[in-house]
Design goal:
There is one protein chain. The chain is of the alpha+beta class. Strands 5-4-3-6-7-1-2-8 form an eight-stranded mixed beta sheet. The relative contact order is 0.23.
Length: 186
């Protein structure tokens, strides 16, 4: 038992989220709790990429095409198994493979999610969880709008919203309903 007490335990994951098929490249590196569910990660991605949470989404494992984690289960879906996003945890899948997060099935904004490293409790003592530690590229505009309508990206502002999200718990699963997203001009 004593050996187990001295073993470092994983508390968080550093993940890289890359928006596919856009130029210039857009990516964010986030530190998230190891206990994060898919629905919670959806909200963090919405915040990190300036999306407005106005469309459906799904998470897929490239090696398991007959499985999706979704915010809305479609009884008419051709996919063999849809699991509600609030009933599954990210870690078991992400430690095995990369994931694909698709937001807005009309625009099909695909994001590749890769586990970069695991972090112990000691390693995150002075780190905000969740937080954005690195970013590249501007946010994109939704619904085919002119890029000038994209929500501006500012990592410090994003980390302030992530901090608010982490303190509010379940009541902030839907970022748009809780004032986490900045006001837009459209």
């Amino acid at each position: 038992m004593k050996e187990r007490e001295n073993m470092p335990e994983n508390a968080a994951m550093e993940i890289l989220i890359r928006l596919k098929n856009v130029a210039p490249a857009v990516s964010r590196k986030l530190i998230v709790p190891v206990t994060i569910r898919y629905d919670q990660l959806h909200v963090l991605i919405q915040l990190a990429f300036g999306w407005t949470n106005s469309h459906l989404y799904k998470f897929e494992l490239p090696q398991q095409p007959d499985l999706e984690y979704v915010g809305y289960v479609d009884d008419m879906s051709l996919v063999a198994e849809q699991i509600p996003a609030d009933q599954a945890y990210l870690f078991p899948d992400l430690q095995q493979t990369k994931l694909i997060y698709t937001y807005d099935f009309g625009e099909s904004w695909e994001h590749e999610i890769i586990l970069k490293r695991m972090l112990t409790f000691d390693e995150i003592k002075h780190v905000q969880v969740p937080s954005c530690t690195w970013s590249r590229g501007a946010n994109c505009a939704e619904d085919g709008q002119d890029p000038k309508y994209a929500l501006p990206f500012n990592r410090q502002d994003l980390n302030s919203r992530l901090k608010l999200w982490s303190r509010a718990g379940e009541q902030l699963i839907r970022a748009d309903d809780m004032g986490l997203n900045p006001e837009s001009d459209y």
